[in-house]
């Protein structure tokens, strides 16, 4: 059946700010900033210390993406039971309040895991590992999603958009799976089971919408544009998931090279026409230097595209060119992943500092770089 766009959701999407010269919406994932600041990271513009949320708002960022982990108590093991977790609901609500105070909207990114969810890792939260029946898992996913949004509503922090899962190329909740746990990997053919879980989460969002008279934009998300056609054909036809508003994808030229940079607009336009939904680029990044600023190895050692060197100018040029290309393809939103993850004394599961500081929008003195202006002509 042709996709009919929810009028209220459309009006919400059109209500984004107009600071950019393009009709595209611009966002940034700032999930790490609270932790970076707590561990000594500082942000500057023209030598003056600034609130990073204010900086992004002033430079045309309209929506902040925030990841949510179920129970990330592994932070206590890293920091010696400090009592403070990151990317849990309390941390997310703090970030959402900062965003809304600056006039920005919020995209809540449910990982449905205690830690990172990505194409290789979709670990089941500890709280759900004893589950044996698919019906019980549906109920747990529904209630967790509903309760999360209910608590945010109680603080007037309901997100304007919700992402069901993160880079769910083979689905959610299937790695580290006990033998008794429901089978959910779509790469193993379990589309119908996976669909019931996606639909349970979406149903919770819609029930909150009905209660609070809101029209939340619901997104599904996979990594690499090369997988979009296969995955969205499967999720809509085999998994029977249809109640979502936009197609989310990650595009990192370092890792997603099977479709060339120049061919990307044509591929995305075909996806937009085939599934009759707008596309949202939810993650991308590019380095501004080859050099590191700490002992934590950087994921981007060099620039992946010869046309765009690893320099502040190259980073900006890549984003400007990508933005123009996306505007031709039915892509309605463009998010940069963790532009505020500068080096500090913070720890994660793999190191101390940042593996991303050379992709941030700040130099190694914390000074703002020109890449933050990429949405402006």
Describe the structure.
There is one protein chain. The protein is an alpha/beta fold and 377 residues long. Helices cover 32% and strands 13% of the residues. It has helices at 7-14, 33-38, 52-58, 74-79, 89-101, 134-154, 191-212, 228-238, 264-275, 312-327, and strands at residues 25-29, 44-45, 48-49, 63-68, 105-110, 161-164, 217-223, 246-250, 279-283, 331-337. The protein has an 8-stranded parallel β-barrel with strand order 1-4-5-6-7-8-9-10, surrounded by 6 helices. A two-stranded antiparallel ribbon has the order 2-3. β5, α6 (134-154) and β6 form a beta-alpha-beta unit. α6 (134-154) packs parallel to α7 (191-212).
Helix content: 25-40%
Overall shape: it is: globular
**What are the secondary-structure elements, in order, as H or E?**
HEHEEHEHHEHEHEHEHEHE
Low-confidence stretches: 1-22
Distance between the termini: 39 Å
Give the structural class: alpha/beta
Tally of individual helices: 10
Mean pLDDT: 93
Number of strands: 10
| Spatial sequence of strands, sheet with the most strands | 1-4-5-6-7-8-9-10
List keywords for this structure.
alpha/beta; two-stranded antiparallel sheet; 10 strands
Report a brief summary of the structure.
This protein has 10 helices and 10 strands.
């Amino acid at each position: 059946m042709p996709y009919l766009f929810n009028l209220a959701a459309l009006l919400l999407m059109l209500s984004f700010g107009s600071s950019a010269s393009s009709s595209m919406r611009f966002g940034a994932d700032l999930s790490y900033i609270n932790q970076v600041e707590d561990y000594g990271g500082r942000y500057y513009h023209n030598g003056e210390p600034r609130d990073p949320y204010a900086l992004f708002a002033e430079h045309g960022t309209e929506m902040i993406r925030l990841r949510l982990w179920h129970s990330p108590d592994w932070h206590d093991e890293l920091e010696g039971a400090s009592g403070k977790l990151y990317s849990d609901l309390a941390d997310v609500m703090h970030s959402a309040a900062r965003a809304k105070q600056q006039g920005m909207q919020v995209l809540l990114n449910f990982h449905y895991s205690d830690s990172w969810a990505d194409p290789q890792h979709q670990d089941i939260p500890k709280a759900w590992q004893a589950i044996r029946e698919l019906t019980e898992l549906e109920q747990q996913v529904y209630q967790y999603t509903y309760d999360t949004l209910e608590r945010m509503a109680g603080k007037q922090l309901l997100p304007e958009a919700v992402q069901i899962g993160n880079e769910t190329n083979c689905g959610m909740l299937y790695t580290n799976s006990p033998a008794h746990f429901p089978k959910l990997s779509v790469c193993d053919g379990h589309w119908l089971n996976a669909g019931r879980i996606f639909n349970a989460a979406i149903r919770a969002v819609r029930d909150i919408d009905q209660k609070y008279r809101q029209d939340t934009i619901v997104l599904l998300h996979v990594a690499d544009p090369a997988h979009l056609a296969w995955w969205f054909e499967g999720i809509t036809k085999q998994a029977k998931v249809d109640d979502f508003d936009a197609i989310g994808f990650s595009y990192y030229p370092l890792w997603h090279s099977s479709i060339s940079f120049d061919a990307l607009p044509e591929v995305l336009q075909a996806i937009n026409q085939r599934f009759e939904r707008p596309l949202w680029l939810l993650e991308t990044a590019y380095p501004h230097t080859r050099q590191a600023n700490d002992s934590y190895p950087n994921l981007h050692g060099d620039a992946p595209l010869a046309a765009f060197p690893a320099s502040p100018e190259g980073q900006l040029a890549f984003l400007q060119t990508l933005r123009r290309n996306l505007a031709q393809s039915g892509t309605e939103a463009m998010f940069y992943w963790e532009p505020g993850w500068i080096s500090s004394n913070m720890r994660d599961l793999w190191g101390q500092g940042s593996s991303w500081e050379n992709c941030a929008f700040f130099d190694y003195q914390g000074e703002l770089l020109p890449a933050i202006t990429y949405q402006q002509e």
